[in-house]
Write a structure and sequence with these properties.
The complex is a heterodimer of chains A (369) and B (578). By secondary structure, chain A is α+β, with helices and mostly antiparallel strands. Chain A has ten helices and twelve strands. Chain A has three domains: 130 residues, no CATH class; 117 residues, Cupredoxins -  blue copper proteins (Immunoglobulin-like, Sandwich); 108 residues, Cytochrome Bc1 Complex, Chain D, domain 2. In chain A, the strands form four sheets. Chain A has a five-stranded mixed β-sheet with strand order 3-2-1-5-8. In chain A, α2 runs antiparallel to α4 and α8 crosses α10. Chain B has a single domain, classed as Cytochrome C Oxidase, Chain A (Up-down Bundle), CATH 1.20.210.10. Chain B has 17 helices and two strands. The longest helix of chain B is centred in the N-terminal third of the chain and has 36 residues. Classes of the chains: A alpha+beta (369), B mainly alpha (578). At the A-B interface, α4, α5 and β7 of A face α3, α8, α9, α10 and α11 of B.
Chain lengths: 369, 578
């Protein structure tokens, strides 16, 4: 192994080992500096606690990960160049035959160990601050549906859909659950998310501090139309929020009144069906299921369960389901059947009296074709 | 088990001992190549079927990527899109990577490496293999009745609503799970009981260590998945509520059982790739691994820890908050044995005589990409950061860095490394190097942007997306287009590999027994190996990796003159005198 001793002896660790180390250290410091001074807020708003804490932890991890990556990959590339087999090497040339370096092995166990402990300590501290209640100033609920969000405010009897309004500077305790399948409640600007699991209530705590409009995104696959399950979070000034919630209470006291079915327009209903219904229902036969059954022959096809009266359905029954929605088992055969899923009610679908009349007219007209 | 035969002393105890005599080779094409119980043939069968499913699953990924070229989608319907990504992931994980790394290379290489003539239970091996194509056909056939749509995780209740193909998915994964469990048992016994005389645990090649820890995971973890799948199937078909919360079931129960398997499954996929890397690095750096015992024992440590961290996939799913803490900390602890491996591989490169063989390039590429994927894994382990990242494209990026950049790069390296041993033909060296560079670049173009796209608010499993980020980093549409173009190059790079393989089979040069001057036992016999592997089982004197010294084996089968006298064969690699 005489030919091997030469490079080994000449420079200890090989030519340029420490110089490369210096270059990598400079690169590492430069990237770390960039990470530390990066204003994440510029790319994704930090709309209030806990976003700041979580971004701090993210930066800490980025700096450490960057150091490990730069040194590891830097030396992989450098070793590959310096210790490559050269054309002049004899066919049986071998590398330096060492098996272990216990000191080195000890260090590359201890140093990652220390980093892991540090990371765990920081993570647990921030985790603990997430668990602490910031005061139950506003406690409310959100319920996931295929494919929309329902919001319930204290004392407000009717639910709000699609648009969530919160007053700025007020700590929020939000309980989330689901009416059908697993959804998720994520506000990227708050850096926080929990799954909305049917039969389980989970709690998010955050404090909106910057007014604006933010996205609420579903991140658990929830069906055909999962990609379009969004809501909007409006963080309002206290005055704007006060005006908005007052309008909600006013609407609650008025109510929509009875539906006049005879005024329904089938053509208007057809357009509305395309917007509101077609992500779950086809206009084909019963078997053509998307999420719910096809509604093309609602009154004439005996496959449709008689949900409302147990009798053969009529136009009144259609409007009844449109107004009240439906959930739970199919009991139309006089005995408990399997659950047939959830049809949201008129508030969930934001249907006016005229909309219901039009939709009913359209569904009736299809059955008569 | 009878007395182990020492070289030149064919034992003559009972007929039952398979070490003592060699069964005659089966006659006829069917017996030899189709319904074979020879581990080598079964290994090749696994590889052929796995390659087929790899191509199908890869094409499904292209469907996904092409649909995401535009924010409004439109290449396929939402349902087809959802089916495509579900079957892409299921096909890649269960029908490609796991069968290739265990059934394929495990069956072919592991018995040869330990100096065995076959695995411990050849008929069990036969059953393991034949469950595999059946399961794969059932899985992909689900497209004809409505493919499963809820991703490879199939969380109920959405999977209870899912199309009829979801039940076929349950059957297919159940079958492949049984196949995995049987293979795990088989390999465990093979490695424990059938090593050549003198091959103590610390003289085993590192790939065998990797297979041992994988077998342990396969044997224990897969049963939990089978139970969960059976329950999902029964609930779907016979309406017994295990998971439906409306009737007293628990959707979170599925997640616990699923991840109790599927987290160890990550290590089932990556540990054999660690083994490929360990052996390739030594052979092409011409020096022994730095810290053999650390590498070997860290595999076992990772396998054991792998059982204790499953709920880190469920930080947002609904657990008692205090339960998040032990899972978070144990997950972070896995960084230590994984780091030990990476630093040991790095130290192995130092002072070597590195040859940029395609297998070596893929192993070095593996080091770079897997280091990155491992580090993003640590981000996901911290609960507060995971609350932001869970369910986003950041997770998609991470899984592809560890599964494509990890397991698939490992498989590519293994293909280039063992191809001459398996087929007796040499692949085109230059084309292999081109394949690496195209794959490496296209891989990073495809998956690197997913990190920041996810962090900025793109959820996974969406057929359309909002183009909402007008920042310096470019819009979602821009980055998704970059990813799609990258993925097309990635698909094209695979054609280079397939062409190289086909070309080698048709026109390749004959390979000598040991073209890479490697030192493990499989290279001491002819390429391809004879039916019985070893006429007489050699004795092992020490750890195989001392390059430059005579091979540490006694009683090797004499090889035909063309190999022994080959001009390319270094004198140091002549069989030891005995």
């Amino acid at each position: 192994m005489a030919q091997l001793a030469a490079p080994h002896k000449k420079s200890g660790l090989g030519p340029g080992f420490w110089q490369v180390g210096i270059v990598l250290t400079i690169a590492n410091l430069a990237i770390s500096w960039w990470i530390i001074t990066l204003d994440i807020n510029k790319y994704l708003t930090e709309a209030g606690p806990p976003a700041g804490d979580i971004d701090w932890l993210f930066k800490f991890m980025s700096v450490v990960a960057n150091a490990i990556f730069v040194y590891t990959v830097g030396y992989i590339v450098y070793f590959s160049i310096v210790w490559r087999r050269k054309k002049t090497d004899p066919i049986d040339a071998v590398g330096i035959q060492i098996h272990d370096n216990p000191t080195l092995e000890l260090w590359w166990t201890i140093i990652p160990g220390i980093l892991v402990i540090l990371l765990a300590v920081f993570s647990v501290r921030i985790w603990a601050s997430l668990q602490n209640t910031l005061g139950d100033v506003l406690t409310m609920e959100s319920i996931g549906h295929q494919f929309k969000y329902e919001f319930r405010y204290p004392k407000l009897k009717q639910s709000v859909y699609d648009d969530m309004h919160l007053p700025v500077g007020t700590p929020v305790t939000l309980h989330v659950t689901s009416a059908d399948v697993i959804h998720s409640f994520w506000v990227p600007e708050m850096r926080i998310k929990y799954d909305m699991v049917p039969g389980l209530v989970q709690t998010l705590r955050f404090t909106p501090e910057k007014t604006g409009t933010y996205r609420i995104i579903c991140t658990e696959f929830c069906g055909t139309n999962h990609a379009n399950m969004f809501a909007t979070l409006h963080i309002d000034s206290q005055q704007d929020f006060g005006r908005w919630i007052a309008a909600q209470f006013k609407a609650q006291n008025q109510g929509p009144g009875p539906v006049n079915l005879s005024s329904g327009q089938a053509s208007a209903g057809q357009a509305l069906f395309g917007q509101k219904c077609s992500s779950c229902h086809s206009s084909g036969p019963f078997e053509q299921k998307i999420v719910g059954p096809g509604l093309g022959k609602l009154l004439s096809d005996p496959n449709h369960p008689n949900l409302v009266t147990g009798e053969k359905p009529n136009a009144e029954d259609i409007s009844h389901v449109l107004i009240n929605g439906y959930s739970g088992p199919d009991n139309s055969q006089g005995k408990a059947g399997p659950s047939i899923g959830v049809m949201p009610n008129r508030q969930a679908n934001a249907l006016s009296n005229a909309d219901i009349a039009n939709l009913t007219a359209y569904l009736v007209s299809m059955s008569q074709k | 088990m009878a007395v182990q035969a020492l070289p030149g002393h064919a034992a003559t105890t009972g007929h039952d001992s398979h070490r003592d005599h060699i069964h005659p080779e089966p006659e006829g094409f069917i017996a030899k190549y189709v319904f074979s119980i020879d581990a080598k043939v079964i290994g090749i069968q696994y590889m052929i079927v796995g390659l087929l499913f790899f191509i199908i699953s890869g094409l499904l990924a292209e469907v996904v990527r092409i649909n995401l070229y535009n924010p409004q989608g439109g290449f396929v319907s939402n349902d087809t899109y959802n089916g495509a990504y579900s079957l892409h992931a299921s096909g890649m994980i269960w029908m490609t990577i796991i069968p290739l790394v265990t059934g394929g290379f495990g069956n072919y290489v592991m018995p040869l490496m330990i100096g065995a003539r076959d695995v411990a239970f050849p008929w069990l091996n036969f059953v393991s293999f034949w469950l595999f194509p059946v399961a794969g056909v059932i899985l992909f056939a689900s497209f004809f009745v409505g493919a499963p749509e809820a991703g490879w995780t199939e969380y109920p209740p959405i999977s209870l609503q899912g199309p009829p193909g979801t039940s076929l998915w349950c059957i297919a994964i159940f079958l492949i799970g049984i196949s995995s469990t049987l293979t795990g048992m088989n390999f465990m016994v093979t490695i424990m009981k059938m090593r050549a005389p003198g091959m103590t645990f610390t003289r085993m090649p590192l790939f065998v260590w990797a297979q041992l820890s994988t077998a342990m995971l396969n044997m224990i973890a897969t049963t939990a998945l089978s139970a969960a799948l059976a329950a999902l199937f029964i609930e779907r078909q016979f309406n017994v509520p295990f998971y439906d919360p409306a009737r007293g079931g628990s959707p979170v129960l599925w997640q616990h059982m699923f991840w109790f398997y599927s987290h160890p499954a990550v290590y089932i996929m990556i540990l054999p790739a660690f083994g490929f890397t360990s052996d390739n690095l030594q052979t092409f750096a011409r020096k022994p691994i730095s810290g053999y015992k650390m590498i070997a024992f860290s595999s076992i440590a990772i396998a054991l820890l792998g059982f204790m961290v499953w709920a880190h996939h469920m930080f947002t799913s609904g657990m008692a908050p205090w339960l998040q803490l032990p899972f978070m900390i144990l997950t972070m602890v896995i960084a230590v044995p994984t780091g030990i491996k990476i630093f040991s591989w790095l130290a192995t490169l130092w002072g070597g005589k590195i040859e940029f063989h395609p297998a070596m390039l893929f192993s070095i590429g593996f080091l770079v990409v897997f280091t990155f994927g491992g580090l993003t894994g640590i981000f996901l382990s911290a609960v507060p950061v995971d609350l932001h990242m869970h369910g986003t494209y950041f997770v998609v990026a991470h899984i592809h860095y560890v599964l494509f950049g990890g397991s698939m790069f490992g498989i590519f390296a293994a293909v280039y490394f063992w191809w001459p041993k398996i087929t007796g033909r040499l692949m085109n060296y230059r084309l292999g190097q081109v394949h690496f560079w195209v794959t490496f670049i296209a891989f990073n173009v495809t998956f690197l942007p997913m990190h920041w796209v996810g962090l900025l608010g793109m959820p996974r499993r969406v057929a359309q997306y909002q183009d909402t980020i007008p920042s310096l980093l470019g819009t979602f549409t821009f980055w998704n287009r970059v990813e799609t173009i990258g993925s097309l190059f990635l698909a094209a790079s695979t054609l280079l590999l397939i062409y190289n393989m086909a070309n080698a089979l048709l026109r390749g040069k004959r390979s000598p027994a040991n073209p890479w001057h490697a030192r493990t036992l499989e290279w001491t016999i002819a390429s391809p190996p004879p039916y019985y592997n070893f006429k007489s089982i050699p004795a092992v004197l020490k750890n195989p990796y001392d390059f430059g010294e005579p091979l540490p084996y006694l009683g090797l089968d004499p090889q035909p003159d063309e190999d022994a006298g080959s001009a390319t064969k270094p004198p140091s690699l002549q069989p030891a005198a005995h």
